Amino acid sequence: MVTEILSGGLFGVECRPVRVEIDVSSGLPMFEMVGKLSGEVREAAKRVRVALKNEDISVPAKRITVNLAPADEIKEGTGFDLPIALCLLCAMEMISEDSLSETFATGELALDGRVCGIRGILPMMLKARECGMKRCLLPYENVKEAEVVDGIDIIGVKSLGEALKILQEKTWLENGKAQANDINRECPAEIEAADYEDFADIAGQESLKRAMTIAAAGFHNLIMIGPPGAGKTMAAKRLSGILPPMNREEMLEVSKIYSAAGLLDSEHPLVVRRPFVAPHHTVSNVALAGGGKNPSPGLISQSHKGVLFLDEVVHFGSISLEVLRQPMEEKKIRIDRAHGSCVFPAVFMLVAGLNSCPCGNYPDPKLCRCSDDQVRKYLSKLSGPLLDRIDLCVEMSRMKIGEITSSEETPYPYTSAGMKEAVMNARKVQEERFKDLRISFNSQMSHVDMEKYVELNEKEKKFMEKAYDRLNLSLRSYHKILRVARTIADIDGSERVELSHLTEALCYRSIEDRYWR
To answer: How far apart are CA 434 and CA 267, in angstroms?
Structure first.
C-alpha cells in the first residue's frame, strides 16, 4: 500500500511542492529513499528511525521505500523529516489516510522526537494555500510566522508524538481549532513602525533634503558626494522614514524574502517597515546578489521595496558594484544553478555616499592636498555604466558655524513630517496615473510611458536638445532626467513638466558631470 502527503522544498524565495510517498512491503528489511536527494534529505531516514524509536514506536522489519516526487527536481533541506514520519505512520496504519488528505506537513525531527523549526515557512504556507490544502502541520516555533497567511489552518506541534495524537483525533481536524496547542488563530497585528529619526536633526543641507524628497517621491536612485561629516549617513538613515508605508501585499512579499533567508523575527514575523540595508564595504558579490548551492536571497533582494545604502561606495569591490547594474535596470536577479534557476525580486532604491577625493576636501584648494591623478583615480572606481543608472547626484558642502547654530526656520518644512507629506501627495498622483499599468512610480516608466506622461512644449524640447548635445548625455541619462522632472512636477502639483522642472532635474545630472567628466 502506498501512502502520501504533501510537503515542500525551498528554492530561492519560492516553495516547490513535493509529494512524499511511502510503500511498505515484504522483503529484505531496509529503508530506501529515492527522488534526487541531497545529503541532508538522505539523512532523514536515520533521524526518522531514531525519533520513532524514542517515541516508543517500532518500525516494522520490512522493505520501506520513500519517494519524493517529482523525481527530476533536487530536494534540499531538513523539512521533509516530519512528513516522512507521518506518511510512515499512516503506512503502519497508526493514522488513517484521510487524516493526511488536504494536509501539508514540514519540519525537522530531533533524535528524541522533538519537531524543530526550519526557515522558509512563509513561502511554504503561501504555496500550500495555492495548492488547495486546508491545514498545515509544522513546528510549534514556526506558528507565528505561518499565521501571517490567511485561509489555511495552522497546526503547530512540539513533538512527533503530539503530531500523532492530533492526527488521530479527527474531531479536532473537523473543528479546525488548535485547543491542544493553545495557538492564537488570528493573524498577528501589524505592529506600528518605530519612530524614525527626523531630518530636522540635520542642520542646513537644504539641497540634500530637497533631493531626498524627490528621490523618495519617485523612488529614484541617489548618490551623495561631499566632505566627511557633512551628514550623508545621517540623511540616508532617515530616508526610510519619509517613504510611504507598505501595504499588506508588499509586507508579505518582503516577509517572504526574509523568511527564505532565515531572518524573520520570531516574535514579529511580518515585516512592516520598509527595509534599510547598509552593508559593509567588504561585502562579497555573492552576499550582495545571493547564491549558494541552494540559492538564498542576498542583500540586494533583502532591500526589496526599501533602501540599499552603500556608504563610502568607492571602497566597495569593483565586481560587487558591477553586480548592481543589472538588478537596477531589470528590478530582479536571476540565479542559475545546474539543478534550476530562481529569480529574486530586486525593486530597491540605491543610495550611495562618498567623499569627493581621498582626503574629502576637493575641490577646495585651501584644504585639499590631493593631486589631480589621485582625485581621478579615486572617483573612477565608480564606472560610467553604473553612474548612468543614477537618477540624482547631490553635492554637499562643509557646514558653516552660522548654519549649525542658527535657530531660524527654513521656508520649506524640511522635517521628516513635511517631507513625507510632499512624498505622499506625489505618490497619490502617480498611483492615479499608473492605475491601469503594472508600475507604481515614475522611475519605472518605460520610453513608451514617457511619451504619454512627459509631454514637452517646443521651449522645453529645445532646452533638452541643447542639454543633450552640450553634456554628451546617453539616451539612458536623457530619459532619467525626464523621469526626475516628472517627479518634481508631481511634488509641485503641476500637470505638465515645465522648464523649471527640467532645469532642476538637469542640475542633479550636471553635478555628476562636474566630478566624473
So the answer is: 36
Buried b (16+ CB within 10 A) or exposed e, 428-445: ebbeebbeeeeebbbbbb
Dist CA 104 CA 16 (whole Å): 12
Spell out the residues 6+ positions from residue 364 whose beta carbon is closer than 8 angstroms to its own.
Answer: 398
DSSP string, 404-421: HH--PPPSS--SHHHHHH
Residue among 279, 280, 258, 260 at smallest CA distance from 270:
258
User: CA 119, CA 263: separation in Å to the nearest integer?
Assistant: 8
> How do 135-139 and 103-105 pair as beta strands?
parallel
| The CATH number of domain 2-175 is 3.30.230.10 | yes
DSSP, res 305: T
| DSSP string covering 319-365 | HHHHHTHHHHHHSEEEEEETTEEEEEE---EEEEEE-SSSSS-TT-T
For the chain, domain boundaries: 2-175, 199-516
CA atoms of 255 and 274, how far apart (whole Å): 11
* pTM for this entry: 0.87
Judge whether 480 and 218 are in contact, CB under 8 Å. Answer: no
C-alpha cell at 66: 520513500
What is the distance between the alpha carbons of residues 152 and 124, in angstroms, rounded to a whole number?
Answer: 12
User: 79, 7 in Cβ contact below 8 A?
Assistant: yes
CA atoms within 13 A of residue 237's CA, in its CB half-sphere: 13
State CA 72 to chain mean position distance.
29
Rounding to the nearest 10 degrees, give the CA dihedral for residues 42, 46, 49, 50: -150
Distances (CA, A) of 159 to 53, 116, 137, 140, 141: 13, 8, 11, 9, 11
What CATH topology corresponds to 199-516? Rossmann fold (3.40.50)
- Per-residue confidence of the chain (517 residues) as pLDDT tens digits? 789 999 999 988 999 999 999 999 998 889 999 999 989 999 999 999 999 999 999 988 899 999 999 998 889 989 999 999 999 999 999 998 888 989 999 999 999 999 999 999 999 999 999 999 999 999 999 999 999 998 899 999 999 999 999 988 765 555 444 433 343 433 333 344 346 788 888 877 889 999 999 999 999 999 999 888 888 999 999 999 999 999 999 999 999 999 999 998 888 889 999 999 999 999 999 999 988 777 889 999 999 999 999 999 999 999 999 999 999 999 999 988 777 788 999 999 999 999 988 888 887 778 888 888 898 899 888 988 898 899 999 988 776 666 555 555 554 457 888 999 999 999 999 999 999 888 889 999 998 899 889 989 999 999 999 999 888 888 888 999 999 999 999 999 999 999 999 999 999 988 777 777 6
